[in-house]
Design a protein that fits this description.
Blueprint lengths: L2 H14 L7 H14 L10 H11 L15 H11 L8 H8 L3
C-alpha cells in the first residue's frame, strides 16, 4: 500500500463528506487524525481490535447514520467514517506510520 493514497482518500472523503472507509490503511489514518484532534493519547502500535474498541467507546454518542445538513463539520464526518468501519485483523508497520502521520 502506498500511504499517500490512504491519506488522500480520507482527506477527500472528509472534506467532501462522501463515501466510507474501505480498508485498515484508511482506518488507521482516520483514527490517527481523530487521536490528535481529540488528544486521546492512543499508542501508535495499537492493534486493530483494540483500536476499534477504543474508537467505538470514544464515539459511542456519534450516530451511525451519515450526518446531514449545513452544520456538518469535517470532524463530524470523520467521526462518522470511523464509527461505521470494522477493521479486520491485518496489521503492519504502514498502519502505524499512517496512524502517526502529522502532515
Amino acid at each position: 500500500m502506498i500511504p499517500l493514497l490512504a491519506r488522500q482518500s480520507i482527506d477527500r472523503k472528509v472534506s467532501d463528506h462522501i463515501s466510507v472507509i474501505v480498508g485498515n490503511y484508511e482506518y488507521y489514518y482516520a483514527c490517527g487524525l481523530l487521536n490528535r484532534r481529540l488528544s486521546l493519547g492512543l499508542p501508535s502500535d495499537i492493534k486493530p481490535q483494540e483500536l476499534f474498541e477504543k474508537m467505538q467507546d470514544t464515539l459511542k454518542d456519534t450516530p451511525i447514520e451519515a450526518p446531514a445538513g449545513d452544520g456538518v463539520t469535517d470532524e463530524d464526518y470523520l467521526k462518522y467514517l470511523i464509527r461505521r468501519y470494522e477493521p479486520d485483523e491485518k496489521y503492519d508497520d504502514q498502519m502505524k506510520e499512517l496512524f502517526t502521520f502529522n502532515g
